Amino acid sequence: MKAFRRAKYALEEWLLLKTWSCGSRPFPRARDLRQLQVWERPVALEAELALTLKVLETVADSTLGDVLDQPLLTLRHIHAELQACVPAQSTAGPRPRGALRSWLHRLQEAQKTESHGCLEASVTFNLFRLLTRDLQCVASGDLCV
Question: Are the C-beta atoms of residues 124 and 5 closer than 8 Å to each other?
Answer without folding.
Answer: no
